[in-house]
Amino acid sequence: MTATENDAAHGSEAAAERGLDARLVVRRPAFDLDLVLTAAPGEVVALLGPNGAGKSTALRALAGLTPLADGHVRVDGRDLTDLPPDRRGVGMVFQDYLLFPHLSALENVAFGLRAQGAGRREARRRAAEWLDRVGLAEHASARPRALSGGQAQRVALARALAVRPGLLLLDEPLSALDAHTRLEVRAALRRHLAGFAGAAVLVTHDPLDALTLADRLVVVERGRLVQEGPPGEVARHPRTPYVARLVGLNLFQGRADGGTVALADGHLKIDAVTALEGDVFLAFEPSAVALYRTRPDGSPRNLWQARVSAVEGRGDRFRIRLDAVPHDRPTGANGDGRATEGGGPHIAADVTAAAVADLGLVEGSPVWASVKATEVRVYPA
Ligand SMILES: Nc1ncnc2c1ncn2[C@@H]1O[C@H](COP(=O)(O)OP(=O)(O)OP(=O)(O)O)[C@@H](O)[C@H]1O
Q1: How far apart are CA 230 and CA 266, in angstroms?
Q2: Which end of the chain is more exposed for a tag (fewer CB within 10 A), N or C?
């Protein structure tokens, strides 16, 4: 059906609600998903979340591959909830659904067009156009096994886009590719998604894919939406420890009271520049943390005793994981924190190789850590 026929068939319904409108409820013995998901036409939504959060389940439910216990899937006003996958008209780029091995690249792309009712010649003409668009015109007659991973991925993308679906689903589209190919395909995918008129939902583990490809992030944990928003906003203002780790920020929750935030666990107070009162999140970059071997002179106010729990190399910097030593517990006779158990907030600090050497940072080293009040972002919880 063409877009116009589609509109005519579904009348004002279609005009009323463009894009994706879904509530996905899936129940399994040890897991349940309940996720409201929408995407406007032209919008790319990335589903992010830890392993087992339910991202693939959500995508498969949209595709009709996993049955819904409750909820609905509507695309451009059309109710797909009870339709089998092949009648949904949804474009899919899934790892285990990539290409038909016995068909050429051209025939793979033409397949969906034929299924949509295009004549053989017309389908091949449009398929050739799409292969050209993804830069694979000269591979039209190649079988999938003769294509590289990146090429196969681009054919799969061309096949999905050629039918101009109202909804495009991409499951880890770059995960099987090596680092170099990944860069290339990411750039190509970005271009094609920008020109795509329908709604797109992308599942990824890779924060870079999510940050560069998506207009909006939807973070899923344990089958529930825990945070959503434009990538920059989510990256600046994480609301769960998973998101904070993903974007490399230190995150705490606490209560603000006159420019001081008492952390939720009651062990530390942090000076911050804020007019907020009440429950807040508090975030700062690992690079904003300064480390000292002994208590620094002039004693900055946000100063903790901590113990190094891990030292991780990251290019030309080192990320130091710290367990803060709670200030209201005894810190040992010489005040160096050695006698105290960890258990205060965890902090990440980024330092240079020279600092690692000068401070002698190894697992178990006691240190003093500080962060300036002006480096701490505070936002409502
Ligand atoms: N076919 C299945 N049958 C039963 N349980 C399943 C099936 N597929 C996934 N699960 C379970 O459902 C939950 C959600 O899995 P899902 O694959 O959707 O998570 P995910 O967020 O995509 O994880 P990952 O990032 O590891 O791919 C997990 O507990 C998983 O073990």
Answers
A1: 32
A2: N
Task: Tell me how far the alpha carbon of residue 57 lies from the centroid of ligand 1, in angstroms.
Answer: 6
| Closest atom of ligand 1 relative to the 205 alpha carbon | 25
Establish whether residue 39 lines the binding site of ligand 1, counting it when its CB lies within 6 angstroms of any ligand atom. Answer: no
What single-letter amino acid sits at 79? D
Mutate to test the pocket of ligand 1, among 32, 56, 65 (most ligand atoms within 8 A of CB): 56
Q: Does pLDDT of 338 surpass 60?
A: no
336 pLDDT more than 80: no
66 CA closest ligand 1 atom index: 1
Report residue 164 as tokens. 């101009």
User: Could you tell me if 78 and 14 are in contact, meaning their C-beta atoms sit under 8 angstroms apart?
Assistant: yes
Q: How far apart are CA 378 and CA 291, in angstroms?
A: 22
Which one-letter DSSP state was computed for residue 105? H
DSSP 2: -
Q: Tens of pLDDT along 184-209?
A: 888 888 989 999 999 999 998 888 88
Query: Would you say 6 and 14 are in contact if contact means Cβ atoms under 8 Å apart?
Result: yes
Does ligand 1 have an atom closer than 6 angstroms to the CB of 66?
no
pLDDT digits over 16-70, tens only? Answer: 589 999 999 999 999 999 999 999 999 999 999 999 999 999 999 999 999 999 9
What is the average per-residue pLDDT within 142-147? 93
**DSSP 3-state of 31:** strand
Give the residue-averaged pLDDT of 267-291: 86
pLDDT tens profile 230-242? 998 998 899 998 9
Q: Do 306 and 368 contact (CB within 8 A), yes or no? A: yes
**Percent over 90 (pLDDT), the chain:** 55
Strand order in the sheet with 216-221: 91-93, 167-171, 199-203, 44-48, 216-221, 224-229
Prediction pTM value: 0.81
- CA 366: distance to chain centroid? 35
| Number of neighbours of residue 35 by Cβ within 10 angstroms | 22
DSSP E strands, the chain = 20-28, 31-39, 44-48, 70-75, 78-79, 91-93, 167-171, 199-203, 216-221, 224-229, 250-257, 260-263, 269-271, 278-284, 289-292, 303-314, 317-325, 346-352, 366-371, 377-380
ipTM confidence: 0.94
Report DSSP letters for 287-321, one per residue. GGEEEESSPPTT--SSEEEEEEEEEEEETTEEEEE
